[in-house]
Specification:
By secondary structure, the protein is of the alpha+beta class. The protein is built from 6 helices and 9 strands; from the N terminus they run E-H-H-E-E-H-E-E-H-E-H-E-E-H-E.
Length: 191
Amino acid sequence: MIGRFPIYIHQCYTDHEERWQYILKIIKDLDEAVYQFLLSAPDGTLRVVGPFNTKRGSCMVLSTPLPALFRFLVLNLPTKVKTVVKQDKAFVELSTTKQLFKRPATYVLKIKDADEISFRQLIHDFGMFLGLKIQPIFLFDSVKVSGSYTFITLKALNKDASAMVNFSRYSGIGNNRKYGFGDVEIFTLEQ
């Protein structure tokens, strides 16, 4: 299981490094070994996206494509901070590896604040985090930049390409993903 879920906070952290350090401090209090792992882990292992304003205050969304880390966070973070990990709640997205492999379709990826977009990196990360080698086949339809967003339309020609696209929601694309850069929203176009 991999996914994204919110943690609710009393103070709104606007600085990227402040948010990252806040999460690391909580994890260090829970388990020093996981903390040390995250200090040297590849970018994208854990991502802190947000903050977002909600009816109950502010929240940050934690996203990880690493199943063992996701399990650790879901089981241990509720002892330190308020979290919600129920499929039908806001900001919560859960997926098994099998669910990533959907039928080929045409996708629009809405990527926020990505300074570099590499699908080769996504393929590498898929193998590194999930232990599966994929060979996606896809066609680019269009690329559009609008403000801080990049919109990429691509047609997946096999299930591996669909899995790569769906995986990007959890791993992000680009550099400094731990700070939430390169966050991806995925839209499927009806054909």
